[in-house]
Design a protein that fits this description.
alpha+beta, six-stranded mixed beta sheet, Iojap/RsfS/C7orf30, NT_sf, translation regulation, Ribosomal silencing factor RsfS, repressor
Length: 138
């Protein structure tokens, strides 16, 4: 028995938006939906998959999904369709792949368990917390 894969039609404008443009759109999206403890991690030189990771928390599964949906909406405003969106059904951890920027929106308990910030910043300065946030992650 086979399961049908969820197919997302990707669209990358030519030329694609710069990583900083995508990062700005993500900032606007997470800020608009009042995501908690937003952290941006520069992984250039550490990962060949992406340039930046953004990790944010939602207060409930509905909030997590709404934040991820808002990120997708803001990317579309740049003419960019995500390469993939994973985890929407359970909405405890939703990943939005925007190529140069990968966004992780998680419930706090899931975020604490996986500790992505620590994984990607071992030996670095602490991750940068977005100025709109009131409290540091962790």
């Amino acid at each position: 028995m086979s399961n049908q894969a969820h197919v997302i039609k990707t669209r990358i404008p030519d030329p694609p938006p710069a990583a900083e443009q995508l990062l700005s759109a993500v900032r606007d999206a997470v800020e608009a939906l009042k995501a908690k403890d937003v952290v941006e991690i520069d992984v250039r030189g550490k990962s060949s998959v992406t340039d930046f990771m953004v990790v944010a928390s939602g207060t409930s599964t509905r909030h997590v999904k709404s934040i991820a949906d808002e990120v997708v909406k803001h990317a579309k405003l740049l003419g960019f369709m995500p390469l993939g969106v994973e985890g929407e059904r359970e909405a405890e951890w939703v990943l939005v792949d925007l190529a140069d920027v990968v966004v992780h929106v998680m419930l706090p308990r899931v975020r604490e368990f996986y500790a992505l910030e620590r994984l990607w910043t071992v030996g670095d300065q602490p991750p940068e917390i977005h100025p709109a946030d009131d409290t540091p992650a962790g």
